[in-house]
Every structure is written in structure tokens, then in C-alpha cells.
Model the fold of this input.
Amino acid sequence: AQTVTQSQPEMSVQEAETVTLSCTYDTSESDYYLFWYKQPPSRQMILVIRQEAYKQQNATENRFSVNFQKAAKSFSLKISDSQLGDAAMYFCAYRRPQGGSEKLVFGKGTKLTVNP
Amino acid sequence: DGGITQSPKYLFRKEGQNVTLSCEQNLNHDAMYWYRQDPGQGLRLIYYSQIVNDFQKGDIAEGYSVSREKKESFPLTVTSAQKNPTAFYLCASSMGPRENIQYFGAGTRLSVL
Done:
């Protein structure tokens, strides 16, 4: 079974600084999808960024970028120029390719605090 | 506005009672999902449905039931057989099997009285 591990229960960063959240996963599949979701205090899950495993290029969305290391099964999220609104729980998630279960497998999350 | 609406926001269950959580989407998505979130945990899949009148068990389906009579609606019933129902419940939807992004509602917090 696929598993997702987030080894940092909590992280903090100064406003305007850069922070990296770690995620590792275990799978025997060669093609899959990886996601970072943000859950602010409102508790609604918001998609931050996604990566398709067959693409070597790291995904980027404005201040958010990933470092996808397929061989190492690592998928870290870098947040640049951190803002107060970035404070939230961040969840890494894995999804198998189409044709199988569509479920997302989530890590336990990292709580990010942004200090002014 | 297109989106996923979950209601109620807060729900209380008495011992031995069944309660139903509502999830409605106007995104014209084929697939819908129910997840459970416990403190300090990620989300775990309860049930999912790829098309109307069809649904599949997830990892923790015991004590829960669902129906999918309409494309836009996927209600979750927490039955009396679920002995530890206190949790945050999130509904999600996606366009279908070929679309891998799931969009989430705002959630329902269920507590036991």
C-alpha cells in the first residue's frame, strides 16, 4: 500500500523568508500524481500545487514550487517570500494513475506558522 | 458560484442515532468522495462514487453508508454502528476518472452528545 510521510509536525518561518516542507512517499508504481494541499483555520482544503510523476520538470505556482526527486521518492514544497496568509496545515498527498482507486493518500500534515 | 456545499457546518449525534451529512456540488463533476479527518491525522477515505447509482468503499467504510441518486448529491450517513464518529468530515469531487484534482467542501464537524 502506498504511504505518505511528513516528518515535520510543525515548522515556522519569518515573514518574507523561505521555508521548505518535506514529504516522502512509498509506492511501487511508476506513474502517479503528487499534491500539496493547504488547510487554513477555516479547515477547507485548498490545492496548492500538483506534480505528475512522468514529468521531470518541477511544478511551480507563483511563490510555491516543489523539488520532486522520483528516485528518492521525495516531494518537498518550497514557499518563497512567506506571507502571514500562508500560515496553515500543509498536507502532502499521493494518487495512483487512472484505472485504480481514485483515493488520495495523505500524510499527517505539517503546521506552518508565519511570524511577523 | 460553482463549488461544493457541505451542511450542516456543525452536527451533534446522540447515542444510537443515525445522522446524515449533506454534500452538494454544482461543478458537474462525475466523481465524489467522503473523507474523515481526526486530530493530528491526514484525511482517510470513507466512500467514493464515480457515477450516479454506483459507489465504492474506501479504507474506513464500516459504520457509514452513502447514496448517489443524483449527480450533484452524495450524502453520508453516520450510523449507530460507528462507535467513534467524532471527527471532521470533508466531501470532495473531481471531474472523473481522467481528472486527478479533487476539490473540497468546507467540511462538517460531527460531535457526540
In short: The interface with chain A takes residues 31, 33, 35, 40-45, 48, 50, 56, 58-59, 88, 90, 92, 94, 97-98, 100-107 of chain B (CB under 8 Å).
